[in-house]
Amino acid sequence: MLERLGIIKFDVLGISVLDIIDGTLKSSGLGWDVLPEDYADPKIFELLKSSKTAGIFQFGSQLVTDYLRHLNPDKFDDLVAVNALCRPGPLNSGMSFDYVERKGGKEWTYDHSKLESITKDTYGIIAYQEQIMEVAHEIGNFSMVESEHFMKLIAKSKGRDALKEKEDQFCQGALANGFTKQQFDTLFNKILEFGRYSFNKSHSLEYSMLGYWTAWLKLYYPLAFYASLINVESDETQSLNFVKEAMDSGVEIKPPSVESPSELTTFNGDKNIIYLGLNKVKGIGPEEIKKVLAAGDNFDMIKKIKKNVYQTLVEVGYLDSVESNRKQLLSGKELTRNTLWAWSSEPNTSDDWSEEEKMFRLRKSLPWPRSYDELPKIESETFRRPLSYLKSETVENKAILSVGWVYDHKAFSSNGTTSYVLSYEDGTSRVTLNLSAVVAGRHKEIIDKIVKGEQKNPLVFCLSPYYMNRGHIELREGKLQILWIGNIEDEMPQNILRGLRGLGGGFETLGPKEFLITNISYGTSKAGNAFSSIECINNVGQITYGAMMIRGGLLPMYGSIIRGKWNVTPKGTFWNGE
User: Fold this and answer.
1) Which of 290, 325, 498, 533 is least surrounded, with the fewest CB atoms within 10 Å of its CB?
2) Are 384 and 505 found together in one domain?
3) Which of 488, 520, 543 is the last residue of a domain?
4) Domain extent for 52
């Protein structure tokens, strides 16, 4: 409506990368005028190809990191193209991979000579919305206004029928410009496939500039960049990834300390050290941080801070310079300045926590990484995936095995049952695991150890990224559901192995009325009846969904074989067992 009135509409984006750049420059004593303008530094392209792209704007996801490695970019135009091509439309159409192959030397020809002037910079591929407009103008004989309208119609189109009038007009123009009907159909189909998710070049270019600048700062001012990145990032898993990459790059990371208290993460370039700020400590809010900073190194004031905050400070090592024995600092309220060993000539002989216990407690509250390589192999390694796999653009609707550590938990009680949310990591990422009361009941011994804080060793989980919800599947970002838990040495139950194999084969051995459960969630109806939402597969590979009412204590499990049929009713699809 505004456009019809001749009013220009501006979309103003607030992006955190500007804060990251600003923080890096200020902490390095620099201004924005130092940022490069030539965008041709070979070292930047080597960094982008190295897979060490965490925190680099638009180039830090697993998908784009893998794409850059295959693309082998060596000029800024490649980065601009990446921003447009690493999106659903180009990926689904195959254009993204055509670009990689053609840049790599694969022979190709233009679909028509008239496309050369429009697509020569992108190896004959229509990569941007502006190219769609130019094609419509030069080949379809649209005016520039009509070309823009056509491009917007494609982006919003719900089907080819909605574009029938424009398609006929485009076809007439293409035929008049020397295209055959077959050449036009090929071109138009490509435009349709790409256009629904297309990106404009002006955005791609601007985003690539910001991406290049962050890569430049990361390469030449790494400590300042990592510190700024960690300060701005609020997501715990992302913070963990940044800390891990900094450590892997040789930077020493230290937890907050009473010696140099700071709300924000800081660094010492001469010592190659990054000091995490109090704002990265989980469970300590802004008001508590103010009180901690106001207390300085006055232990009497620190003791008056809320008990849980004081305990967290001790567990992350904040008071190590006062007393290195963290267990002693939490031994009771009788602690005074005179009993702190750091201020006494008398040696501290009381037992402290083991290093393993210290690290376990520290990781509960700080983004402190572990290594995936620390974890042992398991018998069914074929089905194991790192948690970083879940960051890929397309996550299969299949359960996976994961090995890792539970470092925190929350319990939720209702109607006499208890479900849990577990904080979990495997050295590649941190995620939230949802544990239903039904599954928790099957693993009481392990859950009791987790609740008591005694489960220090890694566990094996069978996890599904998808949830069943009354006959529908849904993906809940950052949350996985637990189907089974075991110790490393435990033998994998046959039903779990059967379920893991299910969607990949093995279902052929099922009988005519037998179904293999390949995903399951438990719930309670509005009437208070227990039920399970399940996904299952039959002996010809057909996947079906529905609900199973739980009667007589019968609790189906992931990987179980059930016998019966589905009944479709106005209220939903329900299982009728035999």
Assistant:
1) 290
2) no
3) 488
4) 17-207
